[in-house]
Design goal:
The chain is an alpha/beta fold. It contains nine helices and 13 strands.
Length: 308
């Protein structure tokens, strides 16, 4: 016989809303109950668990303690599982529904999110996908804080995060773009050494910038970074105007840019390492059926195996 649990799902729900809102007052408004009921439930939860979950400062709202941060993710998982148990008991076990919070690396979003939303709507109309776009460090932080279920990102920077597990679903080889009137535009392929004297337009995102610079540096020359931007499409527009070349990984479906120009794509003959596209999540975290369903769709998109 199992030992009784000293807290309730209601306490966890009130705690989770208060943690997300950062205020007892806002939590009570969202839950449509008295603020005293929220405060009492959280006080009782802290007493039952014998821990402090919040730091309370007058006029500054609620701040989670490290223990509270850990409980927030555990509470989300437990409440999600409780809803699944309820649906199973009511005979709705075959219906996958509910929210899934997905982090996505900014340059992967245009290629992966439209087919993901389209296919998810077709197959799992009850799933609500909430996407947070960012670069690697932002996504890692969101995973650690429990704000997203998993992240779609490049492998850059993940090796230093032992608390995460990751699965490679695709590989994105590096390639070069030049303007369509560049002397090398019609070659189809190039070695980076052929461009070593030309200015580099750098996609200036954390980890990405070091990767791109290292590819050029491997030719034995220091990259001449003339322009830098955090916008993938701005890089392409600058190159289309003949302001330099760039090295990228993600390939859009068109050679046209937002600025109205065009770029030519050239394969790399240098044997440069491809970037791995990964699904990353917190080690030891059990994903809900809906999160697993969304992960499965991303694998199909990466493999190009979605039904027409």
């Amino acid at each position: 016989m199992t030992s009784p649990v000293g807290f309730t799902l209601v306490q966890l729900r009130y705690f989770l809303v208060a943690a997300e809102r950062g205020s007892m007052t806002e939590a009570s408004a969202e839950l449509h109950i008295a603020q005293s009921a929220v405060s009492a439930a959280i006080d009782n939860l802290e007493r039952d668990l014998q821990v402090q979950l919040f730091i309370r400062r007058r006029g500054r709202g609620l701040t989670l303690t490290p223990t509270g941060e850990r409980l927030r993710q555990q509470a989300r998982d437990l409440l999600a599982r409780a809803r699944e148990v309820e649906r199973e008991a009511q005979g709705n076990g075959g219906i996958i529904s509910g929210p899934v919070a997905v982090g996505c690396f900014v340059t992967l979003a245009p290629s992966y999110l439209p087919p993901l939303f389209s296919e998810c709507t077709r197959r799992y109309p009850g799933i609500e996908i909430d996407v947070r776009e960012g670069e690697t460090d932002q996504l890692v932080h969101a995973l650690a804080a429990g704000r997203i279920d998993f992240a779609l990102t490049y492998g850059l920077g993940l090796a230093a995060e032992p608390a995460l597990r990751s699965e490679t679903i695709a590989r994105a080889p590096a390639y070069v773009i030049v303007s369509t009137d560049h002397p090398l535009a019609g070659q189809g392929s190039v070695e980076l050494a052929e461009l070593s004297t030309e200015p580099l337009v750098l996609l200036d995102l954390p980890h990405s910038r070091d990767y791109f610079r290292s590819l050029v540096a491997a030719t034995g020359t220091a990259p001449d970074v003339r322009y830098r931007t955090q916008s993938y499409e701005t890089v392409r527009s600058l190159v289309a105007r003949g302001l330099g070349f760039s090295v990228l990984n993600q390939r859009p479906a068109t050679s046209q840019t937002y600025g109205g120009g065009e770029v030519a794509e050239l394969e790399l003959r240098d044997g440069s390492p491809a970037l791995e596209v990964k699904i990353a999540s917190v080690e030891g975290m059990t994903q809900s059926p809906r999160a697993r369903a969304v992960m499965g769709l991303l694998r199909e998109i990466a493999a190009g195996s979605l039904d027409d």
